[in-house]
Design a protein that fits this description.
Mean pLDDT: 93
Largest sheet: 3 strands, antiparallel
Number of helices: 2
Distance between the termini: 20 Å
Low-confidence stretches: none
Number of strands: 20
Helix content: 10-25%
Length: about 260
Amino acid sequence: MMRSLWTAASGMVGQQFNIDTIAHNLANVNTTGYKKSRPDFEDLLYQTIRSAGTPATRDTLVPTGIQVGHGVRPAATQKMYSQGSLKNTGNKLDLAIEGEGFFRVQLYDGTFGYTRDGSFKIDSNGQIVTSNGYKLSPEIIMPKGFVYSDISISQDGLVTVKIAGNDTPVEVGQIQLYRFVNPAGLKNIGENLVKKTAASGPPVAGKPGFAGMGKVHQGFLEMSNVQVVEEMVNMIVAQRAYELNSKAITTSDSMLATANALKR
């Protein structure tokens, strides 16, 4: 059996994985805080038929060897944490991070998730939560009688609010941001959330706008960093690569058919 059949087949599988990643990016083009993924590939095992440097004669060595590759496979899918554009919403609890950092939320099992999606709400207990009810951590609870329209969040994360009948703002909490040495190593769990892993390193907490942390902008949301034109170009490249690998398979099949017809 010709080696090229399996080699080209691995190329088709690899490009299918590439298209899957591109499709996921395009599906999340309007997802708040979404970061696009990039597939990385690596070549497979090589078969060495003749090693470079083997003796050719008594006084000479072979300058180059003969190696035959066996195709390609996906090596990683890397999240690209470039800044997304900021959209002005005017909502008092919509927060966007300009720069590095994640909001931390407490999941139902007591563990923590991290997100760039700052579309927060207030639940029946006055706590700031995500759209799925996960509490912002550290917790921020609004006092009784607060005026929603008078919620103010500064760029350094200080949350103040006015209470009905009192014109003096009251401090109710401080938003913290968290960053990682290797954010690409975070584990994606859906719902716009990621979790820390051994590869990402432990979270480093900090005040927005200080020690390398990004600033918090009230009334804005960070949009997806997916560039539609770039993804469409990547899709065309992947499609053509898929077609080229399929051509290699049909060519190999044609060569096998020619060899099989010699007996006739």
